[in-house]
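Handout, page 2. Input:
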Amino acid sequence: MFAYIVRRLLFAFPILLGVNFITFALFFMVNTPDDMARAQLGAKQTTPELIASWKVEHGYDKPLFINADKGGIKTITETLFVQESLKLFTFDFGQSDSGRQITADIYERMWPSLAIALPTFIIGLVTSISLALLIVLFRGTPLDTATMMIAVGIMSVSGLFYIIAGQVLFSKTWHWVPISGYAEGWEGVKFLILPVLIGVFSGIGSGVRWYRSIFLEEMNKDYIRTARAKGLSERQVLFGHVLQNGMLPILTGVVVVIPTLFMGSLIMESFFGIPGLGSYTIDAINAQDFGIVKAMVFIGSVLYIIGLVLTDISYTLFDPRVKLS
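Output:
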């Protein structure tokens, strides 16, 4: 197990390096250092001297990938990509282009993101699995058909529609919850109710269909026929055997998502004015703040790799046939 984890972590380095390379290439294809300097300094007050000074101060005066003015290994090492990537691999995110400490901002903003993501994830998971089990219990009946039609209908509508409709209906028309905003502690619950409910509802269609297909596949296996032959009721078969054995494919999607929850929802946080990491990333992209963008992409990649490793480890806990070596 330990050797497997070490090997997977070593494999992560070239993956992260490739993600960094793509991030640098794509960002600087759209934004030049001069554009970034003007965005930070203010387009009306910039001069060539101020732009050059800003680029030197923030390290954007160096070539991106190849430094033709240097010789030997410095042709690669004396570049923006290598120097900034080395800092990321040591988790030194430094300052944003606007002068803020990125690590402090991430720590401050991760809590609002978690306040939305955790309840949405837990409630959505429990609700989807429960409904899928209920549908499987009544499979082949009008309830099964009607529920699947509703699930497909929910999936077919854009999440933006649910956000806008929820704000209009529950906030502007009925005034049950605030339309946007955020507060610390229990005062913030009223701001989280609507985005959490919308997040659960918009994802319930795909979740129910996926879990239903998993459970139906288990229902057709030999061990289920054996359990029925022993006299077990349909509910005992469903909850005692199907649910337990269906957990393996469910873990594939669930465990990968858990480490990435704190990254937040880009659209949800932006529409509801919640100061989480999702809106933090959107604001950084709009402001052409590459310091924040590269840090958030790197963290997201690290967490996704951790999620994959946790998925493999969880397999060994739920299925004794799986061995990691």
